[in-house]
Amino acid sequence: xxxxxxxxxxxxDGSGETFEIEQSANAPAIKxxxxxxxxxxxxxxxxxxxxxxHSERRERQILSADNLTKRGFSRYERDQVTGAxxxxxxxxxxxxIQRED
Length: 101
Description:
Blueprint: E1 4-9, E2 18-22, E3 40-43, H1 56-62, H2 65-70, E4 75-78, E5 85-89, E6 96-97
Antiparallel strand pairs: 1-2, 1-3, 4-5, 5-6
C-alpha cells in the first residue's frame, strides 16, 4: 500500500480544499488537483503512513559487519568495563573512541 499524502488547493485566503492521495514515496508531488486542475500544494502535518514490513533476519543482514563495511560505514561497540567504543566493522575511522571527561 503506497503512502497517503495530503494536499491543499492554493487560494489567496488559504481556505482551499484539502484532500489526500495515495502515491509512491518516489513520485514527485502533484502540482494540480486531479479532478479540477486547480494548483495545489502538499500539506506537511504528519509523516506519511508507511507500512514497512521487515523481518529480524533481514535486519541482521542489513546491519551485518560485511554489509556495513561494503557500504562504507563503521560500527562501534561499547566496552562495558572501560566505557570506550571499539570498532567492530568498517575500514574508516579510529579503532577506538573514548569519552573525554
